[in-house]
Amino acid sequence: MIVIGGGLAGLAAGVALAEAGLRVRLFEKRPFLGGRATSYVLPDGEHVDNCQHVTLGCCTNLEDFYRRAGSADKIKFFDRLVFVDAHGRPGVMHSSWFCPAPFHLSPSFAFFPLLTLRDKLAIARALLAISLGRGHTPDLDEPGGISMLEWLHRHRQTPGAIARFWRVVLVSALDEELERTDARYGVQVFWKAFLANRTGYRMGVPAVPLAELYAGCKAAMERKGGEVLLRAPVRGLRFANGRIAGVQLDDGRVETADAYVLAVPHAALPELLPADLLRSDPALAHIGQLTDAPITGVHFWFDRAVMSEPFLSVLDCTTQWIFNKSALYGADGNANGGQYLQLVISASYDLLPRSRQEIIDLCLAEVRQILPAARDAVLRKATVIKETAATFSPAPGCDRWRPQQQTATPGLFLAGDWTATGWPATMEGAVRSGYLAAEAVLLSAGSPQSFLQPDRPDGGLFKLWKSTASRSRVKWPLRGRT
Ligand SMILES: Cc1cc2nc3c(=O)[nH]c(=O)nc-3n(C[C@H](O)[C@H](O)[C@H](O)COP(=O)(O)OP(=O)(O)OC[C@H]3O[C@@H](n4cnc5c(N)ncnc54)[C@H](O)[C@@H]3O)c2cc1C
């Protein structure tokens, strides 16, 4: 069994197949595992994440993957989400023990100071529509899909609600502007994370640099006689008589296996597969329609502590999130008595043409406006990491371009956040794709096994309604989805 690519998709496939007893050889072109969700060491010895990555309570497959990798205890979960406006005025959202889902966040939402009453009433109406449809509204079925912005207009959202609520949550979660996001994904985020149950919204943040989460994956594959080869770029798949004859490595060597999981970004496929295969397989012919969206990370090392919260979601600024890496890493992240912050800007199209110094100046001015303690602090060091192709853009109707993990070519399987998972480009989506690829490999080998984890069950009133409906044999009035 050969897996090409050591991102979360390839690792999830590799670990699942190794646990099923297969000997897996994983080829990764870079010197570390984790793909886009990794970290590396700067020339001065500082560990930095490629970008801050967060998970949510609703990401059940990623949770399962961290457990299999032995790194579940390295993710810290938070129940309290703190928002600040450009002047540092805070607003907090958290679950209330006395309110069942979907109303568990309602008390804190009612007192949330950064939205007007009109904004809140509009938001409550739209959230109720999502809840009543259990994650679905009829307008999502329109052919070709509609954009999230269109959906928000149809559901009569105020400009304040769009700018200070929907945009804040969704641009970070989906890495795209609302007018370029399929409303299905936007509605799904709110249903799975904020409405279906009490725990879906809990935010999980790694307490170690990202690359440290994957050591257990290598061990899991090696235990079954497999190997993980780093700095091992695959140059292409070789074909003979319509079947894969092996993978060609840098030194010209060809390695063979019974099955191959190609777990690379969609843009890398044309380098690895013959052009006529990409043209002739209807599932692959349209992957060129997928486009990418950027994320920019800005890293600041201050000479003193300037922030006490572990993270802040920022309204009305270019900066969208500020993560207090020193607090998240504990003693190890003390940054020599100072404080290390990481800022995240998703869908950062406007920043791409700007110089690193311009971005640092812009974000530093915002941080000093938001965090008064930063005004007198000395910025010891700063770095900017621009990821131009951070995720595929969740454009309306893009699901039709995403191929299944099983291909028409015998022995060839695909994995990657961009394959058909129903999820946007996230770590959860990548792990799901890896598990689905592993299931497809085993099914075609005649020994089916399942790895995909179910969604967290609907809780609170949804559970109550469901059991009442089944006891009284009344047909469940709301659309049945999990
Ligand atoms: C800046 C940024 C911030 C993000 N933030 C979040 C977040 O907060 N939460 C979240 O859930 N998701 C986030 N994501 C998305 C998440 O990182 C991705 O969805 C996920 O990591 C994709 O995993 P993957 O395995 O599909 O692809 P990748 O991680 O891209 O893995 C593909 C691997 O294939 C390797 N490869 C490519 N070509 C070859 C070859 N020829 N031979 C061998 N190896 C090859 C690559 O080196 C890479 O390791 C973020 C992404 C970025 C870039």
Characterise this structure.
The protein is an alpha/beta fold. It has 3 domains: 2-34 and 214-290 and 395-444, FAD/NAD(P)-binding domain (3-Layer(bba) Sandwich); 43-92 and 202-207 and 292-392, Polyamine Oxidase, Chain A, domain 2; 96-200. Helices cover 30% and strands 20% of the residues. The protein has 14 helices and 20 strands. The strands form 5 sheets. It has a 7-stranded mixed beta sheet. β16 (311-314) and β17 form a beta hairpin. It starts with a strand and ends in an 11-residue tail after the last helix. Bound molecules: flavin-adenine dinucleotide. The site of flavin-adenine dinucleotide has 39 residues, from α1, β15, β19 and α13.
> Superfamily at the CATH H level of the largest domain?
FAD/NAD(P)-binding domain
Give me the secondary-structure category: alpha/beta
Number of strands: 20
Number of domains: 3
Reading off the top of the CATH hierarchy, the class of the largest domain is best stated as Alpha Beta
Named at the architecture level, the CATH assignment of the largest domain is: 3-Layer(bba) Sandwich
Summarize the structure.
This protein is an alpha/beta fold and 482 residues long. Helix content is 30%, strand content 20%. The longest helix has 18 residues, at 427-444.
Outline the secondary-structure elements.
Elements: E1 2-4, H1 8-19, E2 25-27, E3 39-41, E4 47-49, E5 55-56, H2 60-68, E6 75-78, E7 81-84, E8 90-93, H3 106-110, H4 117-132, H5 148-154, H6 159-174, H7 183-195, E9 203-206, H8 215-223, E10 227-229, E11 234-240, E12 243-249, E13 254-255, E14 260-262, H9 269-272, H10 275-280, E15 292-302, E16 311-314, E17 321-324, H11 325-329, E18 339-346, H12 356-370, E19 379-392, E20 412-414, H13 427-444, H14 460-471
Parallel strand pairs: 1-2, 1-14, 2-10, 7-16, 14-20
Antiparallel strand pairs: 3-4, 5-9, 6-9, 7-8, 11-12, 12-13, 15-18, 15-19, 16-17, 17-18
Helix pairs in contact: 1-8, 1-13, 2-13, 4-6, 5-7
The structure holds flavin-adenine dinucleotide.
The site of flavin-adenine dinucleotide has 39 residues, from helix 1, strand 15, strand 19 and helix 13.
